[in-house]
Amino acid sequence: MNLKMGSLFWLMGLCFWVFLFCCSFSTVSADTVGGNKVGGTVFINGKSPIGKIDDDFVCATLDWWPPEKCDYGTCSWDHASLLNLDLNNKILLNAIKAFTPLKLRLGGTLQDKVIYDTEDHNLPCTQFVKNTSELFGFSHGCLPLYRWDELNTFFKKSGAVIIFGLNALSGRSFRSDGSAVGAWDSSNAESLMRYTVIKGYNISGWELGNELSGNGVGTRVAANQYAFDTVSLRNLVQNIYSDVEPKPQIIAPGGFFDQNWFSQFLNKTAKSLDVITHHIYNLGPGVDTHLIEKILDPSYLDGEANTFGRLQSTINSSASSAASWVGEAGGAYNSGRNLVTNAFVFSFWYLDQLGMASAYDTKTYCRQTFIGGNYGLLNTTTFVPNPDYYSALLWHRLMGRKVLATSFSGTKKIRAYAHCAKQSQGITLLLINLDNSTTVEAKITFNDTSTSHHKHKLHRLHRLHKDHHRLRFHRTKVIQFPGGSKTSEMVREEYHLTAKDGNLHSQTMLLNGNILTVNASGDIPPLEPLNVNSTGPIAVAPFSIVFAHIPSLVLPACR
Q: Strand (E) positions, 213-303?
């Protein structure tokens, strides 16, 4: 009886949805609707989620680079290091607090040359000195305990969730072939951990090393040795945190994905590793003059799905239950590129990455950087938020943990992602228009993906775009609206992001036509939506981004 009644309600819902959304629009997915406008269809499978992200999925990094760090003749780090960052800056504090919480990963290249000024360290606590003959171009540097105290006081005040990257090269020797050999000397790390516990500082995770996996960057460590050292880290944490719950996560290796290396590492750390981290700089060097061409090319963006897919497959075929994180992603390596990786255009790449990573069950995504270099969420000198800061904040507030399989039929210039809404019923849809002259009017259809070839995640490998025509023949799933709802009451909330004056290089972002900027007190501005009748399509202007929260759509996947 219950099954029959349920089927009846689903059928009634189907009729209602079709009446509202389909009667006024052609079912053809890419009809021209006048001028520089085209229609398109977003297909969402609302039956069950395809992934589940962390509540604090959005993460950013703080690095160690001193002001002397320069790339291609440009020195872009100023005082953004963990050692010299102005922790009294109001914008910095407010920008982190706005996330409640923001996950921060402390680390980067020089973390493997950091010495902690604890009781076991008897030498002077000196800072990094530029030396091109040294590994990574700098001498060893030291973290004074008073600075560690200052940082932790700030983190507690801001509510940040902290991941700390440990020096994984301590105790190793270097061979002529570029490899680092020998066991990790954990004594200095142990002293820092014990001090941290005594002081009551909350560290959510300890990560071992930075970019030493596979071929490494600067040097490398073999997978078997790295696994042995990770097990040692696990044992160390279990001992030091014996009276503390919950215990910090064990995270590694913080490097570029190499399938053979990661496979060996996972199988030898099955009971010790909580999170496996990989880094993404798929756009190439910051000096590349074709960065924007790559960002606006859907096929190029699709290429990173191969990495996500192979990593997911490697984890699933291993004995490990480790979660997958993107531990560092700046898009363009060597500090990014001014007026590209810190400008409006980079939100196309960044939000597409967040959507794609989620679709492959990535739990956390750490952006390089929160501040520092030319790819910071905040301006390195003024601390004023760059456009990607607001993109990250909107994602964090609107996109819930459950990820929905989503695809778009129509122009290839639209990127589409959907999640169950965050702290609200309904769904949130993210649409990115990479076209410079065409407005896309997108309607939404819900699929019954009962057959195996329909179970693709969004943008899973480049071939998905070739299969869009099949999706038109999906059976439409039913949408349940709240009891007593009227069409006039069915309102969605839209957040339209555009560049000031339409300039992709602009570092000023507009939300629904209004400039986003901090006030004189350093307060982050409110992010207010437009209320739009849900019965019409979503209009995505050229070179724009739209978040659409539709609270009236209650899907089985989101219950």
A: 249-255, 275-280, 284-285
Measure Cα distances from 440 to 26, 410, 412 in Å.
14, 9, 11
Cβ count within 10 A of residue 280: 22
Q: How far is the C-alpha of 559 from the C-alpha of 145, rounded, in Å?
A: 47
Q: Which residue has the tokens 């199988």?
A: 267
Tens digits of residue pLDDT in 499-557:
999 999 999 999 999 999 999 999 999 999 999 999 999 999 999 999 999 999 999 99
Sign of the alpha-carbon dihedral angle for 256, 257, 263, 268: positive
Q: Which of 207, 211, 441, 493 is catalytic?
A: 211
Q: Among residues 190, 304, 328, 494, which one is catalytic?
A: 328
Q: Which residues contact residue 216 at a Cβ distance below 8 angstroms, ignoring those fewer than 6 apart? A: 178, 179, 255
Of 257, 356, 358, 354, which Cα lies nearest the Cα of 315?
Answer: 257
Q: Which helix (H) or strand (E) holds 327?
A: strand 323-329
CB atoms within 10 A of CB 107: 30
Q: Is 246 helix (H, G, I), strand (E, B) or coil?
A: coil
Contacts of 376 (CB under 8 A, 6+ apart): 80, 342, 369, 370, 386
How far apart are the C-alpha atoms of 161 and 234, rounded to whole Å?
A: 20
The β-bridge partners of 509 are 499
Query: Alpha-carbon distance 281 to 288, whole Å?
Result: 12
The rounded distance, in Å, linking the Cα atoms of 389 and 383 is 11
Give SS3 for 333. strand
Contact call for residues 387 and 78 (beta carbons, < 8 A) = no
Cis peptide before 67 (omega within 30 of 0): no
What phi, psi does 38 have (nearest 5°)? -135, 155
First to last CA, the chain: 22
Q: Mean pLDDT, the chain, as a whole number? A: 90
The residue whose two tokens read 């872009």 is: 76
Catalytic residue check, 245: no
Instruction: State the average pLDDT over residues 162-185.
Output: 98
Q: CA angle, 175 as apex, 173 and 179 as ends, to 5°? A: 85
Name the β-bridge partners of 417. Answer: 430
- The one-character DSSP state at 128 is P
177-209 pLDDT, tens per residue? 999 999 999 999 999 999 999 999 999 999 999
In the beta sheet, which residues pair with residue 418?
Answer: 404, 429
Annotate 65-108 with DSSP letters as a single string. --TT--BTTB---TT-STTT--TT-HHHHHHHHTTSS-EEEE--
Give catalytic status of residue 68 as yes or no. Answer: no
Structure tokens at 538: 């979503």
**Number of helices and strands (H, E) in the chain?**
11, 26
